[in-house]
Each structure stands twice: as C-alpha cells, then as structure tokens.
Amino acid sequence: MSLAEAEWLRLAQHKDDTAFEHLVETYQRPVFNLCYRMLGNQQEAEDAAQEAFWRAYQALDRYDNNRSFITWLLSITAHYCIDQQRKRRLPTLDIDLLTDFDAPDAAPGPETLLKKKQDTEAVNALLENLKEQDRAIIILRYWQEFSEEEIAQTLSLSVSAVKSRLHRARMQLANLWMEEHQPLGLERSIHGSPTL
Amino acid sequence: MVHQPYSSWLLDEVKLTPEQKKQLEEHLESCTECQPVQHAWVSVKKEITSSPMASPAAGFTTRWKTYLQIRNSVNQKQLAKRWLLGLSLAAVATLILLITQIFTSGSALTLILGISQAQQLASGLVSQLRNVTWLLFHNSSPWIWVILIVGVASWVAISLIAGSYIIVRSRRKESPNHEN
Hints:
By secondary structure, chain A is an all-alpha fold. Chain A contains eight helices and one strand. Chain A has one domain: Rna Polymerase Sigma Factor, Chain: A. Chain A binds chain B through residues 17, 21, 24-25, 28-30, 32-33, 36-37, 42, 45-46, 49-50, 53-54, 57, 99-102, 116, 119-120, 122-123, 126, 138, 142-143, 163, 166-167, 170-171, 173-178, 181, 188, 191-194, and chain B through 3, 7-8, 11-12, 32-33, 36-37, 40-41, 43-45, 47-58, 60-61, 63-65, 67-68, 71.
C-alpha cells in the first residue's frame, strides 16, 4: 500500500467519504474481478462489488490497521460472494455482455474480442464446477497471486485447509479438463484406468 | 501403482529438488494415470493465467457514490422506523403497566378515589398558575412583560429557523440525485 493510500485509509476511517472514494477507485478491479469470477455474470458482479464496498465502508472503524487492507477488503468480498452463490446455487454465465478486460492493444479487433470472450467462457465454465470456497481459493491464488497464508487470512481458514483445498480444486479442474478434451466414449475417473 | 508423493508434486506447486524432479519424470514416463493429470493441469493453469483480470465498466466510482447515498438514505429510514417502533412499544408497555397497576392494586373504590385525587391535583395546579399570572400582571414592572414577550418571540423564531433547516436538509438527503 502506497503512502497516499494509507493516508486515504486513515481519512476514510475518520468518515471522510472522498477518501473512501479514492479507495474504491484504487481497489475496484480486484474486488470486481473476484465478484465476476465467483458469480460469472457482469451485472451481478457489479452489484456484489458495490455491496462489498458498502460493507467495507460500514466496517471500516473495526478494521485492524496491522492487517493488509486488500486482504481485509477481499475477505469481505469473498464471504459476500460465497453467500450469494450459496443462495443462488444456479450459476449463470453472461457471455453476451463482455466485461472490460485489460487490452494489450488500444483497439482490439473483433477476433481478439471473440478470443477473449471464448477464453473467459472456458475459464468461467471450469470455475463454476468448483465449490464456492474452492473457487474463491483458485481466484485469489491465480488472479490475485495471494500466498497460501494470505488466502487463509482472507477466507478465515487454516493454512493446511487452504493447501488441501487447493490440491482438491486443481485435481478437480484437471479432471474436468480431461473430461472435456478426451475422445468421445472414453471415460476417466480420478486415478482410475481409462475404460472404453 | 503408488501415486504419492507424485500427485502432490504435480498439483501442489512445491519446489522440487533435482532428485525429486528426476523421480517425478521417471514416474510420469511409466504412469498412465498421472501423465494425463499433469497434461491437463498444465493446460488448465495456462488457461487461467492467460485470462486477464476483469474490470468493471467505466464510472464505477460514480456509481458507488450514488449507491452510498441510496444505502445511507435507506439506513436512516430504517433507523427512524426502529426508533418509532421502540418508542411506540415503550408507550404501549407503559400504558399496559399503568392500567394493570390501577386494576390490580385495589378495588373500584380505590380507582375512583385515585381519579378524584388526580382531578383535585389538576385543579390545584390550574389555580396556582392563575395566581402566579395574576401576581405577575399586577405587581411586576412593564419591563418584565417586554422581556418575556421578546424572549418568547425569539424562542419561536429560533425554533422555526431550526425546524426549516432540518426539513430542507432531510429532503436533500432523501433525493440521491440532488447533486448530479
């Protein structure tokens, strides 16, 4: 966290709304990305991100300054998304509404956009097969590049629980990939022999 | 065939020693179950890491400001409702307590006596007030009346200004798009 961010945080804790707006501006991407990958829908992700910021705004006086702000903020976001996902239980993919992604070139052509859409669709389709908490772990690990300790802190889990869930999620994703990419008629179970 | 610790080495992203790497490679060459898992995980990881971080549509912070105003307004209304409900409940509870006290503390005669005493007390208060007013009117200097009238008028004026300010402020808060 930069000095300016630390100052905004300090001011926001003293009920300065403009300072909190700076924090929203700074952290909107990781919060939105977590919501989008968790919920798979742009509109729901937008609503969830706004709600997560509202909850953070409300709980700011209880924030422990010794803790990383991004970990704390994503903890609120992840818990909210997990709750939403559990309530919903029927994930939907919004592939028609393409979210704004980091574009390597200034004006990506239709092919680039289509490729991005397909990639997002494929990744979201894989993620939606995971349990809510496992999905959050994978998102925090690979998009947020959190360490196992940071994930544990964010999701209120032990480090060993994070490790075992990461292993399980990776295995599940690998199996899903194999199921999708194997020739027709060939079935495979986890550590099971291929059967015809 | 035993798949541990190779399965963990494949999926847990642990840093392997050269010796462990060699053992893993040998196992993968001979194991028809771990090899596809490794290929699949490498592909999945590539897919995930090449998928960029999603960003919200432009203007997120502006939308946040509106969201904050709406939520604050809803919160204030909820708080006011809770207060009103609490006060109403307290008033009802007090009334019930008083009625219960009246009806359980004695007979109908006690109740009639109580009402009569209250009536006497009220008429005594009215008579005292009348006396005080009369004394003020007849014995005080005219300056006291001037001060009293000016004081009351100032109090009314201040109350009106404060009341208007509160009403205007609450209306502003209730309309979230006021500043937009």
